[in-house]
């Protein structure tokens, strides 16, 4: 699919695949604004995502996530957008993303993910208390939601500069 660079580019993928850092680098290269939906939620709520999960539960977080993604996409900002790794669990949100943006899936292999794991788990409430085999199961299950994309790249061991260059090549 040929992509116009003049539209939103939205990054999806498993927690820790680098959506925020790669999104920032990509936005700079394409001279677009960058929006990290989780950051927008944290700023609005005045607390980190893990506290939203703790105080209000996952369903409440998912409702905020859906609202912020919907509002942002309807504003037609022509931006690079990073959404949380669970955003595509909500079919309506996912469909809107596919309609209003070029969706790029950042695929990370399980081995590369394990190498980064220590940096990821502490700030991800959906991983708290889970064993490695639980996380692997979640990683596998999630691949089905990330299958909904326009383009994908593998980000294993790439830094944000390299990964964003790779995105520019494929879109
Ligand atoms: C989640 C991913 C997180 C964040 C929340 C839930 C998920 O974002 O939205 O903790 O369910 O995969 P990142 O993918 O940026 O870590």
UniProtKB/TrEMBL annotation:
Top-rank taxon, per record: Bacteria
Coiled-coil parts of chain: none
GO terms (BP aspect): amino acid biosynthetic process; aromatic amino acid family biosynthetic process; chorismate biosynthetic process
Listed HAMAP family: Shikimate_kinase (MF_00109)
PANTHER family: SHIKIMATE KINASE (PTHR21087), SHIKIMATE KINASE 1, CHLOROPLASTIC (PTHR21087:SF16)
Keyword Transferase annotated: yes
Keywords of this entry: Amino-acid biosynthesis, Aromatic amino acid biosynthesis, ATP-binding, Cytoplasm, Kinase, Magnesium, Metal-binding, Nucleotide-binding, Transferase
A GO cellular-component term linked to this record: cytosol
The protein's name in its UniProt record: Shikimate kinase
EC number: 2.7.1.71
One GO MF term attached to the UniProt entry: ATP binding
Taxonomic lineage: Bacteria, Bacillati, Bacillota, Bacilli, Bacillales
Positions contributing to ATP binding: 16-21, 124
Family assignment from sequence similarity: Belongs to the shikimate kinase family.
UniProt cofactor note: Binds 1 Mg(2+) ion per subunit.
InterPro entries assigned: P-loop_NTPase (IPR027417), Shikimate/glucono_kinase (IPR031322), Shikimate_kinase/TSH1 (IPR000623), Shikimate_kinase_CS (IPR023000)
Subcellular location: Cytoplasm
Binding site for Mg(2+): 20
